[in-house]
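Our consortium's second objective concerns turning raw sequence data into structural hypotheses that experimental partners can test. To show how far this objective has progressed, the report includes one record in full. It was chosen at random from the queue rather than selected for favorable results. The single chain below, 499 residues long, was entered without modification.
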Amino acid sequence: MKYFSLTLFLFLQLAIGQGQTKSAPDSLDNDPIVAMLDSLVSLNFLSKVNFSEQRNDCNLPHECKQFSDYEYKTKLKKLNSPIPLDYNEYVRNYIELYANRRPVLTSRVLGLSQLYFPMFEQVFDQQQLPLEFKYLAIVESALNPIAVSPAGATGIWQFMYQTGKMYDLKVNSMIDERRDPYKSTQAACKYFKDMYEIYQDWLLVIAAYNCGARNVNKAILRSGGKTNFWQIKKYLPKETQGYVPAFIAVSYVMNYYADYNITVTPPAITFFETDTIAITQHVSFESISSALNIPLQQLHYLNPVYKGNFIPVNEDSKFLTLPSNKISAFITNSDKIYGMADSEAEKSGLKYQYTTVEKKKTYVVRKGETLTTVARKNDCMATDIKQWNKLKKNAVYPGQKLTIYVTEVQKTLVASTIPSPNDSINPAAPDTTSTIAIAVISEPKMALYEVQKNDTLYSISRKYPKMTIEQLKDLNKEVLGGNPNILRPGSKLKVIAGS
């Protein structure tokens, strides 16, 4: 057994396991991996949203084929993977499962791979991990971003709550980053690297991803210290005994599916037909769907991280994935879309609560500034700044760091009940009622600025970084009159305070 960091080992022993595994019957018909595959085939949401209706999956021109052990070994070897793609009877059983017994599922996963694999490959390449790990997501979830196991493992990479939390995947009332394809892939990479630091063997890394480091370590001990997956296989949980062969089989079938005359079920959208845009205000999926003529369920599918019908604006989640050809339309109609969100909230029985929050920030004094100008820019009194910073004099110098306290009004959208977008998919979902915050928006802090000699709109906008020149013009049309480029000293302009 190879040496590894004792600190990392103890850390992983306590926290890294992907949940408790359960024994699986010997027959593949009762295998938990097979059950997961069958659940995806019957998932109405995916068939409606993510696949083209151009062809009938039930009439695939599939051919049931079997090859010799030598052919299987040779083809696996040709893949030139850094992960040892060993061949044996266990691998053969799973090859026949994916290729001959579940060709419809394989066809549809091939379609889904066009949405997710380019992103997986980009992340794995950046992290210097074998690109073949992308096939592990098929074994985990059949590329279903909203998959939930009986034990509660969630998302494409099937993270348990505590494991996800340990790898910085946030879960709260509004978002579940285990369902975010990109963030969960990054978390999976960290897991693979942590496991490889322990075992220095990719097949053991894959086994640990399924049953946890603790179970792998037990199997190593029971085997007398062997560190080869096939030598410790019988000491692992039964589900894990099939998990590694299933990964090797998926790697084979995803490369040689044409040998079985399996064709790709075209998805409704591919990775290169999507793009991401930042959201600046809370917004509802209904308003986006209505304004851009995008099916509501497709929006939910492209943005599975959001649990409800609203995208909250906070530090954790403020991005929206759309078809690329809808990005320009969103930008053009953003005011309308954001405006519609308020009316949608009212229709849904949502309401606003207002609270005041005092925030502490650090302000760096710039050249030419005085205590008075710093106070004006931050909408406070010079005496307050002196008190907060225990200053004895009014003098300040460039580069000096001052503590400033600002009071902001926060507008929080709350509801008695928030339906999940998956309720229509799973009618048996429990009906729960609770009051939760779904969006927090900081109201802009307005102030008046007295125009000084030699001021220009540009120089004023530099003093108030939250404002553009156009915003200054729009807010002060009456004061500026017909010629907004000529400022009168002493006149007062509305500005958005804060640096």
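The partners drew two points from this record. DSSP finds 22 helices and nine strands in the chain. The first strand starts at residue 274 and ends at 278. Both points have been shared with the crystallography group to help prioritize constructs.
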